[in-house]
Design brief:
It is a single chain. By secondary structure, the chain is of the alpha/beta class. It has a single domain, classed as Rossmann fold, CATH 3.40.50. The chain has helices at 15-21, 39-49, 84-98; strands at residues 4-7, 25-28, 52-55, 74-78, 107-111, 115-118. Strands 2-1-3-4-5-6 form a six-stranded mixed beta sheet, with helices on both faces. It is globular, with a radius of gyration of 13 Å. The protein starts with a strand and ends with a strand.
Length: 119
């Protein structure tokens, strides 16, 4: 299944080609001139483009501000460090899980041990 991603500016740039190589449709906040944009603006762009946001920004995990169902989907990554391989491994864990679990409108918080899903 092909997923449509928008990678936040805090995601290592090498994640983009890795996801494209797997056949996914990937855009980045940086390539779309959204560097430094407010969180609501980034999420609005994702919603307009029907894209799932992948970010390290914990602000997006606040369901009072960004309730599930109000967006296309958000994956908040919680790696042990921000190295490329650590971040990529969490994204790939999400991709694998998305093969059996719905992502639309959900908040996923992904760390090395588990994926917490808020619907």
């Amino acid at each position: 299944m092909t997923l449509r991603f928008k990678l936040d500016e805090n995601i290592p740039r090498r994640v983009e080609p890795a996801l494209r190589d797997l056949g996914h449709d990937v855009e980045t906040a940086l390539s779309e001139g959204l560097a430094g944009a407010a969180d609501p603006d980034i999420l609005a762009a994702c919603k307009a483009e029907n894209r799932l946001l992948v970010t390290l920004d914990l602000d997006f995990s606040d369901i009072r501000v960004y309730p599930p169902g109000s967006h296309r989907g958000v994956w908040v990554l919680r790696p042990a460090d921000q190295a490329f391989t650590s971040v990529l491994n969490l994204v790939l864990a999400g991709v694998r899980l998305s093969a059996i679990e719905r992502t639309a409108g959900q908040l996923w918080v992904i760390d090395e041990k588990r994926v917490r899903i808020r619907e």
